Amino acid sequence: MTDFRKSTVYQIYPRSFYDTNGDGFGDLKGVTAKLDYIKELGVDYIWMTPFFVSPQYDNGYDVEDYYNIDPRYGTMEDFEELSREAQKRGIKLMLDMVFNHTSSNHEWFQKALAGDERYKNYYIFKKGKEDGSAPTNWESKFGGSAWEYVPEMDEYYLHLFHVKQPDLNWDNPKVRKEVQKVVRFWMSKGVKGFRFDVVNLISKDKFEDDFEGDGRRFYTDGPNVHQYLKELNAESFGQDAEIITVGEMSSTSMENCFEYAGEDSHELSMVFSFHHLKVDFMGNEKWVLVPTDFQKLKDILFSWQIGMAKNHAWNAVFWCNHDQPRLVSRFGDEGKYWKKSAKMLATIIHGLRGTPYIYQGEEIGMTNTDFTDISQFRDVESLNHYEILQQKGLSKEDAFRIIQIHSRDNGRTPMQWNGENYGGFTKGMPWIGVNENYTKINAQSQLHDETSIFNYYKKLVALRKELDIIAYGDIRPLDVRHPSIIAYERIYGEEKMLVVCNFYKTEVVWDSGMDLKGFETLLGNYSEQKIEESKISLKPYEAMMLYRKR
Predict the structure, then answer these.
(1) Is 324's pLDDT higher than 70?
(2) How confident is the model at residue 372, as a pLDDT?
């Protein structure tokens, strides 16, 4: 049985991974074709974003049919082949389940609109206020009201996301039974992991106006969420000890995560929390340009590390996914220190307590898009906010610059496999533009280069398997107020590991305040480390992992 604490998960966004039929859209056969590449990296699980039948208003997170594969991605036979081939290579599949909402095309919602009371109760319909306006002033995560009026019913339905993503009513036991049935179906197909999309939003309680924020405090980590997750666990994935689960937690609290991912809470194996990825936001507002708050980043990372450990709960640790800009563009350097900064950022995450997630292309240092016009973007959230920013008074140029930096499409451009046309992603016209730097940044050029970013990630993945201290050790942050260093110790029995990273391009000498004799270098992004007694001299973006038996 795979121990998820020693495992690494590789996330695939299938539509941008590899296209085998030339339609410009990645497919399941494309994932199968690249399994040897993924095995070479050494990861244990592949998490794939949704490939179920969907009208694709939110790139598959609007599910029309939970039991069938969208023809764009292939067939059930393709999925079964992928499952078999992955298994042969010792890789397990993790599916992305979207259960906070469905597509408005889903049969349940269509029946609800047709007046079927049973299915109307699968969703959240409410009468408007006396003046006919929406039941509450809550805002959709994609901009605008979170309520949509249905004239035939003279009622509104709730959609916390896209207007075509109506929220499910989890307070209805029939809905919970349907969800359990879906999970059991995919378990029967050999699936050994589930990632649950925005799962901490499933329990809505008070439907009242929010005069302090956008409404999220009334539907985040709701009163019955833990009960519903325990029930889902008991009725589905909890029946197979091999299955691992991760919940995407939107604007969650750490206290709730102690329970979501507690050792004995019988809910989920681990959680994604996003607080550390809001350090270049202004409060919760991401559509602004502000520098990264490095101190805040460290404070958040370490408070979660310590809090989760103290409460015997487990974190997923990550920088990237399909909803985030590219790591090296965001926190590193796209120019002279591209390789060094990508490795440094990887070192920070892979030394932490938690299961690391690598997002496709992260392991080769892919960068943000090079788009020059709004017409090149596809993401509904970005396009909505481009208009909203201009309505707020920004010029087109300023609005566009913000979209360029923060758009989810930065993480969605096609995987760069080689230096051939479109980075080897497709023989057709890709659904979204390929970054022109594919001739320099691609997987093929890195596989056999010992100094490549890919091979550095490969070593990090292997170290977690080899050394119990990484998987099981305690964590102790070091010199937390230092303006440019992020450093921490891992401790396990008689072993000690020290992770030290220079987050910036300015050289710095760090006084660790400890005797560094006897430490050996496990890994570093420079060929030689300069360590004298208690001091370490760090070059631009230098990272090192040091180890000794105490």
Answers:
(1) yes
(2) 95
What is the location of CATH 3.90.400.10 in the chain? 107-158
Give me Rg for the CA atoms of the chain. 23
* Residue 205 confidence class, pLDDT cut points 50, 70, 90: confident
* pLDDT surpassing 80 at residue 296: yes
Active site residue 131: no
* pLDDT reported for residue 1: 61
Q: What are the tens digits of pLDDT across the range 121-142?
A: 999 999 999 999 999 999 999 8
H helical segments located in 188-293: 225-235, 254-260
- What's the rounded mean pLDDT across residues 426-442? 97
CB under 8 A, 24+ apart: contacts of 60-65: 60/15, 61/98, 61/161, 61/165, 61/197, 62/98, 62/101, 62/102, 62/103, 62/104, 62/105, 62/162, 62/164, 62/165, 63/98, 63/102, 63/103, 63/106, 64/102, 64/103, 64/105, 64/106, 65/106, 65/107
Any idea which fold 9-102+192-232+245-371+410-461 has? TIM Barrel (3.20.20)
Amino acid letter, 424: G
Query: Which residues lie across from 45 on neighbouring strands?
Result: 9, 92
Which of 64, 78, 197, 231 is catalytic? The answer is 197
Residues pairing with 543 in the sheet: 501
- Is 90 exceeded by the pLDDT of residue 282? no
pLDDT score for 59: 85
Given 248, 267, 379, 409, the catalytic residue: 248
Domain 107-158 has what CATH class? alpha beta
Q: What is the pLDDT of residues 159-190, one digit of tens each?
A: 999 999 999 999 999 999 999 999 999 999 99
Catalytic status, residue 248: yes
Delimiting residues of CATH 3.20.20.80 domain(s) in the chain: 9-102+192-232+245-371+410-461
Amino acid at 509: V
**CATH pick for 473-549 out of 2.40.50.690, 2.20.28.120, 2.60.40.1180, 1.10.3470.10:** 2.60.40.1180
Q: Counting beta carbons within 10 angstroms of the beta carbon of residue 115, is it exposed (0 to 12), middle (13 to 18) or buried (19 or more)? A: exposed
Could you give the residue range(s) of every CATH 2.60.40.1180 domain in the chain?
Answer: 473-549
